[in-house]
Amino acid sequence: xxxxxxxxxxxxxxxxxxxxLFKEEEIxxxxxxxxxxxMARESMDKGNWGVAVERLQRLEAKYxxxxxxxxxxxxxxxxxxxxxxxxxxxxxxxxxIKLHPTHPSVDYAYYLKGQASYEEDRSTIGTLLxxxxxxxxxxxxxxxxxxxxxxxYTLFPDSKYAPPARERVRHLTNTMARHELAIARxxxxxxxxxxxxNRAKTVVEEYPDTPSVEEALGLMVSSYNIMGLPALADxxxxxxxxxxxxxxxxxxxxxxxxxxxxxxxxxxQEGDEGFFSRIRNFFKRKPSS
Length: 289
Description:
By secondary structure, this protein is mostly helical. 67% of the residues lie in helices and 2% in strands. It has helices spanning 2-22, 33-45, 49-62, 67-82, 86-99, 106-119, 124-128, 139-155, 162-189, 193-206, 212-226, 230-243, 275-284, and strands spanning 254-256, 259-261.
């Protein structure tokens, strides 16, 4: 019995604590805009982003015009970004840009919009492994980030956010190239060589300054040879040799998507599968009768 009473008491205490936790903050109705902003700023300085958003929105609702309202809108973008409320952060950035296109800090709103799109939907496994590779994510998100970052240094070339925005664009361009290359590898491994060539050509033509071009050209050489198109294979090989004279994809042991091909495009034995590929293939084998 004593245990049951103790448990009941703990449940009641937890319930009351929860009610207190979610109780709406009481603010002096006569608080000035400066006092409201100071409270919101204090929450941000402590990393209490949820409380900060509430206080900033309350400030804007009570004082919708003026420098404090504009700063509250900017701070809301950042606070929602830190809360990982990405769609809300992007919407807040778009709203600020629309309302204040000539604001001295509008470049910051563009940069935060790009940063929010850049961060969204990262692979949990990739983050845990420290890879932060976005090439397997939805490319629409990457394109949104690219557009926002390009706006920063195009519209505001002297902005302090222009250099990091350019660096983000370089990284995201490489990401888009790797995304297309991953699809090309997928088709190549399944002998869908027309599709593989089309994807590889996208890498070469749309992302010519990225490291992915080398393998894309190698894939084109291999796929053209497999399809019996030696002239096109020779053209691709010449481009590969010209730009990457020491490329591993010029050798007879060129590897694409876990398979090895000869210079003539014929598949060789696949005795060098990776650990996870061996597991996958084990479960794909048909059961013996």
